[in-house]
Design brief:
single chain; 91 residues; mainly alpha; 4 helices
């Protein structure tokens, strides 16, 4: 997505590359949050970032559009709302 090519081993051994990927990833999530417009304004940005981390950008969008009713859990039982609550300033 950002015209960078690297192996998993290169990624694991390069903290600067890890930071670059993390910055790109957060910017990508923020773009998706901003694209939701008014719907996203009722939510805390850090909470939505965490929701996108566990549920993907598509899952975060469904979470917002359903007003939190879309709330699947991962294999350990952690739900989107669990992550939202843990990482939002509202927690």
């Amino acid at each position: 997505a950002n015209n960078t090519s690297f192996t998993q081993e290169e990624f694991k051994n390069n903290p600067q590359l890890q930071d670059k990927v993390a910055d790109w990833h957060l910017a990508d999530i923020d773009k998706a949050i901003d694209a939701l417009g008014e719907e996203a304004k009722a939510y805390n940005r850090d909470g939505l970032r965490a929701t996108a981390h566990i549920g993907g950008i598509g899952g975060m969008k469904k979470y917002v559009r359903s007003k939190g009713q879309y709330n699947p859990s991962d294999q350990l039982g952690t739900s989107l709302n669990d992550y939202y609550s843990k990482f939002s300033e509202e927690a």
